[in-house]
Automatic annotation (TrEMBL):
Keywords: DNA-binding, Membrane, Metal-binding, Nucleus, Transcription, Transcription regulation, Transmembrane, Transmembrane helix. GO terms for biological process: DNA-templated transcription. SUPFAM superfamilies: Zn2/Cys6 DNA-binding domain. This is Zn(2)-C6 fungal-type domain-containing protein. PROSITE patterns: ZN2_CY6_FUNGAL_1, ZN2_CY6_FUNGAL_2. The chain crosses the membrane at residues 126-145. The keyword Nucleus applies. Residues 15-49 form the Zn(2)-C6 fungal-type domain. GO terms for molecular function: DNA binding; DNA-binding transcription factor activity, RNA polymerase II-specific; zinc ion binding. SMART domains: GAL4 (SM00066). The keyword Cell membrane does not apply. It comes from Penicillium olsonii.
Length: 529
């Protein structure tokens, strides 16, 4: 008996459009009379062949033997024009190890994660941030720049100044016409990092201009108003508080040293009086404990880097005002300028407040805390050595700043006491005699040189030209010693001045002449006139 089979569906030589889209086999009608395939017929769909056909399989490539052995080329990183990628990441790590404690403008875990993901390939904002950080590291640490130049993926620049300017031109090229229409802390950080970079290489005019940009961004972000922090996550609050204080440091610098009157100011007297400094102090926890929606409590009593930043900020605040909320009936600078007695009282209070803060620092931040032995111990854990070096850098910055501010206030106090005209004032002030003032200067100089000769070299270098300029200011004040050469105070002052020449030759690594207190710009219209 012969078995009969059901008619077999035939495959089309070309699939219809519907079957191609669904990626299924296209079965033609066995009768051959219908123009639709079986699937389109069953689903009552229009069976069309309008889509263009493509060659099946990959395109044929004819490669030489050499080409077949080489991997496909990778897309170069956008920092490749500065240095190789491995070296660039080493520079980022140097920032975290050496400079971050003084300029903590990133959230470390988030920053490290973004670096691992190479986020700067696609994110212009993160690219600008990393390039600005690279500029600051190179500008600050001359010894590291020499190491970078000898690296196999060497930096392609002859000088630190060339590198910093190349970095700045790179980030300017990323800015579009709408750059300032959307603001963020990251954009502020980029401006601040470059103003600090130009200052570190002694390029004061560029630093002045970037300072104005950073001040404007800080004001627009309202970092000086704690009431404007509502709605920010925990990470952003911490970053903006730190951002406020690094801007405040510059504000105090300008207030006490604006010799030419050319610097704009970050805070006006009304804004300064409205600030309670404790509201704007960062949380005393490391970044690793701060997440977007929560802050964890520390599990150990290990020293925290933020503690040093907070103490440093309080020292700067004490140079301007008493701690706590604005005192009722406080006197603004313009009122003090018209009453020398008020001015003297103000400076005496500032000096007393700074001296008090020096006596009440945490033990691990004290000037006499030993660090050299730990940092130089080859058997010590590397992570522990890094933390100790970071703490040493913070302490060096903190104590040199503390000494420098007291020295500047002594200058102001001495000038005010020698003022020939004084208005009557209801405030009783007691002038410090000249001998007492110079005994105080001698004590400050002794503390300064203790720091310079007993702290690790890398902790001093991590503070860059900021530290060298402060040392220069303190020593320069000794040149005006009014006592006879045979007086013990004069002999001590001469000794410190002699010591400073060797110290400054090591600390001042700028590639040009120091022009911090000089007019370095030219009014071409005035010359032509």
């Amino acid at each position: 008996m012969q078995t009969t089979h059901a008619p077999r569906a035939e495959l089309s030589t070309q699939a219809c459009d519907i079957c191609r889209k669904r990626k299924v086999k296209c079965k033609a009608q066995s009768s051959g009379y219908s123009l639709s395939c079986l699937r389109c017929e069953r689903l009552n769909l229009a069976c069309t062949f309008a889509l263009p056909s493509r060659t099946r399989g990959p395109k044929k490539r004819f490669l030489s033997d050499t080409q077949t052995q080489c991997p496909a080329p990778t897309v170069p990183h956008r920092t490749q024009d500065l240095c190789d990628r491995d070296l660039f990441k080493n520079i980022m790590q140097d920032y975290l190890d050496y400079i971050y404690p003084m300029v903590p403008l990133v959230h470390r875990p988030s920053f490290q994660k973004a670096l691992q993901e190479d986020r700067d390939r696609e994110d212009d904002g993160f690219l600008a941030l990393t390039v600005a950080i690279a500029a600051l590291v190179v500008a600050t640490m001359a010894s590291r720049f020499q190491a970078y130049q000898s690296d196999p993926g060497a930096i392609r620049f002859e000088s630190r100044k060339d590198f910093v300017h190349a970095c700045y031109q790179k980030i300017i090229g990323l800015r579009t016409s709408s750059y300032f229409d959307q603001l963020s802390f990251q954009k502020f950080a980029v401006s601040y990092l470059f103003l600090a970079s130009f200052m570190q290489i002694g390029d004061q005019n560029w630093s002045r201009m970037l300072t104005v940009e950073a001040m404007q961004l800080a004001r627009l972000l309202k970092m000086h108003r704690i009431s404007e922090y509502t709605g920010l996550n925990c990470i952003e609050k911490q970053l903006r508080k730190k951002g406020f204080w690094v801007m405040f440091y510059g504000f105090v610098h300008g207030h006490l040293q604006n010799l030419h009157g050319e610097r704009l100011t970050y805070l006006d007297p009304a804004a300064l009086q409205a600030i309670n400094p404790e509201d704007l102090m960062p949380l005393e926890v490391d970044d690793e404990l701060i997440f977007e929606n929560e802050v964890l409590a520390p599990e150990t009593t290990e020293p925290c880097l933020v503690t040093g930043f907070i103490v440093h900020s309080r020292i700067f605040w004490a140079a301007m005002r008493d701690p706590g909320p604005s005192p009722i009936g406080g006197h603004c600078p313009c009122a003090r300028a018209n009453d020398t007695c008020l001015q003297i009282k103000h400076f005496q209070e500032r000096l007393n407040c700074l001296q008090y803060l020096g006596l009440n620092m945490p033990s691990f931040l004290q000037m006499w805390e030993p660090t050299q032995a730990i940092v130089n111990d080859h058997d010590a854990d590397e992570r522990k050595k890094t933390v100790q070096l970071q703490l040493a850098s913070i302490r060096a910055n903190l104590h040199v700043t503390h000494i420098w501010l007291q020295s500047l206030i002594l200058d102001q106090l001495e000038a005010a006491q020698s003022h020939p005209q004084r208005r009557s004032s209801t405030h009783q002030v007691v002038d410090l005699d000249q001998k007492s003032l110079w005994v105080e200067r001698e004590k400050l100089s002794h503390h300064l040189f203790f720091v310079l000769f007993n702290f690790p070299r890398m902790s001093l270098e991590a503070n860059g030209l900021h530290l060298a300029n402060k040392v220069r200011d303190v020593v320069a004040s000794l040149l005006g010693c009014p006592f006879p050469p045979e007086d013990p105070i004069s002999k001590k002052a001469a000794e410190y001045i002699q010591l400073s020449t060797d110290v400054l030759s090591r600390l001042d690594s700028s590639e040009g002449m120091n022009t911090l207190h000089l007019q370095t710009w030219v009014d071409t219209d005035r010359i032509q006139g």
